[in-house]
From TrEMBL:
Transmembrane segments: none
Bias type Basic and acidic residues, positions: 1-12
Organism: Streptomyces pseudogriseolus (Streptomyces gancidicus)
Pfam families: Oxidored_molyb (PF00174)
Superkingdom to which the source organism belongs: Bacteria
Chain segments carrying region Disordered: 1-24
InterPro entries: OxRdtase_Mopterin-bd_dom (IPR000572), OxRdtase_Mopterin-bd_sf (IPR036374)
Protein name: Oxidoreductase molybdopterin-binding domain-containing protein
Ranges where the Oxidoreductase molybdopterin-binding domain occurs: 84-230
Length: 253
């Protein structure tokens, strides 16, 4: 947050007193200052991406989790429940769909990108309190992958696993079929980077962000909801923003 500037009203102390005003600013100095300001604005996106990349890399090697407390201009915090997370790319990434389905499948990143894409712009709300407004996500609707797999009549839930080897999440089948639940491949109009859970992550727009599992590797259709990593540690399984976890945040979807 920018600090508030002191009053610039004409009646403010010293505003019209030549003995208390600063020395006049020369034309060259003024133009130079404006030029530096414009340069800073032009370079801001690159500096922001560099900062996010640095923090993501540092958090990936920080078993204490303290790096995730550092702020950055994008408003996000970097969380991982493991000391490190392997990196996947277009050649090594696979997403499996299995469990109570008639047609188990394995998708490459290219396979996922070839499917129809949906773009959503919603606020992101973390259960710890921070919020990032108007964040674009793009990807494949989870319902499309479930329909392609042929969900069996006995199924009532979906379990998600991640290639960090530790994190899990679950949704009811009804929740998973919502139009605002994606296997996201892009975020903020860029391919999903490793620090944000790439190459693919779950995105559950109406729920707190811990439901949007990063580094998604498996979708398993099950009979019952299985509490995820944070839910066995006390977080709500049904994590609707503003209606769970004892919070009253404004909805995000």
């Amino acid at each position: 947050m920018k600090p508030e500037h002191p009053s610039q009203d004409r009646d403010a102390p010293g505003a019209g007193d030549p003995d208390t005003r600063g020395a006049p600013v020369g034309r060259r100095v003024l133009l130079g200052t404006l030029g530096l300001g414009a340069l800073g604005l032009a370079g801001a996106p690159y500096l922001q991406r560099g900062l996010e990349s640095f923090l993501a890399g540092a958090a990936d090697r920080d078993p204490t989790g303290l790096t995730g407390l550092l702020p950055n201009g994008g408003g996000f915090r970097y969380y991982s429940v493991t000391a490190s997370v392997p990196r996947k790319d277009a050649r090594s990434y696979r997403l499996t769909v299995d469990g109570l389905v008639d047609r188990p499948a394995s998708y490459t990143l290219a396979d996922l990108k070839a499917l129809p894409q949906t773009r959503l712009v919603r606020d992101v709300q973390c259960v710890t309190g921070w919020r990032v407004p108007g964040t674009p996500f793009e990807g494949v609707r989870l319902s499309r992958l479930l329909d392609a797999a042929g969900v069996r009549p006995t199924a009532r839930a979906v379990r998600f696993t991640c290639f960090d080897g530790a994190y899990t999440e679950s949704l009811t089948l009804e929740q998973a079929r919502r139009a605002d639940v994606l296997v996201a491949l892009r975020m903020q109009d860029e391919d999903l980077g490793h620090g944000h859970g790439g190459p693919a992550r779950l995105y559950v727009a109406p729920m707190y962000f811990y439901k949007s599992a990063k580094w998604l590797s498996g979708i398993t259709v099950t009979e019952d909801v299985e509490p995820g990593y944070w839910e066995v540690r006390g977080y709500d399984v049904d994590a609707w923003v503003g209606r769970s976890n004892g919070r009253d945040d404004a909805p995000t979807s």
